[in-house]
Q: What sequence folds into this?
């Protein structure tokens, strides 16, 4: 993997702002479809999108966040959250969907430094 082929998609919006999450996931999947190595980083209120059974709205049963299996079909295998944000929200990784990697401060800096392209939502 070369740095030129890496894409970091940062999701900071709460899942209630569904259009931002949808846009971020679309961008991630398009990047992956064009051969980028994609990582998703959920920060701040964006961490809430990783809670199981997130719905788009009160009148729909469509899941907002694709399952880790769906993301894996696009080779998006890195779902990350800052450990500090989990702590601030009084959450543990066990509260989230499977496959989420908590990052300490050093790993978080490296995540940004290692990405050739960063999209912020």
A:
């Amino acid at each position: 993997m070369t740095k030129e082929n890496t894409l970091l998609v940062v999701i900071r919006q709460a899942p209630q702002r569904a259009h931002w999450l949808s846009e971020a996931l679309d961008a991630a999947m398009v990047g992956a479809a064009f051969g980028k190595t994609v990582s998703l980083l959920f920060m701040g209120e964006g961490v809430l999108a990783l809670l199981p059974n997130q719905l788009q709205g009160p009148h729909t049963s469509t899941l907002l966040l694709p399952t880790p299996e769906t993301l894996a079909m696009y080779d998006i295998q890195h779902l990350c959250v800052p450990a500090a944000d989990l702590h601030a929200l009084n959450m543990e990784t066990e509260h989230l969907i499977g496959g989420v990697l908590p990052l300490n401060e050093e790993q978080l800096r490296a995540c940004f430094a290692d990405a050739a392209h960063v999209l912020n939502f």
